[in-house]
Amino acid sequence: MKTWNDYKDYVKATDSEAKQDLEEIEALSQIVSAMVAQRHTLGLSQRDLAEICGLPQSSVARIESFKTTPNLDTLLKIMNALKLKITITPA
C-alpha cells in the first residue's frame, strides 16, 4: 500500500466494522471542514460564530478540532448561522 487512501480502501474491504467507523469519521470530517471553510469565508472568528449561536467559544473550538461531536441541535444552530444546509440522502 502506497497511500493512506490505499490503506483505507483495504481496511474497508476487509473489515466491515472498521469500514463503518471510517465512513462515519469521513462524513464528520466533511461537515466540520465545510463549517470551518464557510466561517472563514464569512470572516467570522470562532468567538463571533459562538456568539451568534449562543454557544461558548470553547464549544466551537472543540467541534472544529474534533474533540467533540455536536448534537443535532448544536449542529443546526451552527449551520444556520453559517448559511449552510445539511442534505440527507440514502446511503
Secondary structure topology:
Layout lengths: L3 H11 L1 H26 L4 H8 L3 H8 L7 H10 L10
Helix pairs in contact: 1-2, 3-4, 3-5
Please give a structural write-up:
- This protein has 91 residues and is an all-alpha fold.
- It has a single domain, classed as 434 Repressor (Amino-terminal Domain) (Orthogonal Bundle), CATH 1.10.260.
- It is 69% helix and 0% strand.
- It is built from five helices and no strands.
- The longest helix is centred in the first third of the chain and has 26 residues.
- The chain is elongated, with a radius of gyration of 16 Å.
Question: Outline of this structure?
Answer:
The chain is built from 5 helices and no strands. The chain has 91 residues and is an all-alpha fold.
**Number of helical stretches of at least 4 residues:** 5
Could you name the CATH topology? 434 Repressor (Amino-terminal Domain)
Count of the domains: 1
Number of strands: 0
Q: Biggest sheet, open or closed, and with what strands and sense?
A: none
Task: Detail the poorly predicted runs.
Answer: none
Looking at the overall shape, the CATH architecture is: Orthogonal Bundle
Distance between the termini: 27 Å
Write out the CATH superfamily name. Answer: lambda repressor-like DNA-binding domains
Mean pLDDT: 94
CATH class: Mainly Alpha
Order of helices and strands: HHHHH
Instruction: Report the portion of residues in β strands.
Output: under 5%
- Indicate the radius of gyration in whole angstroms: 16 Å
Structural class: mainly alpha
The shape is: elongated
Report helical residue fraction.
Answer: 55-70%
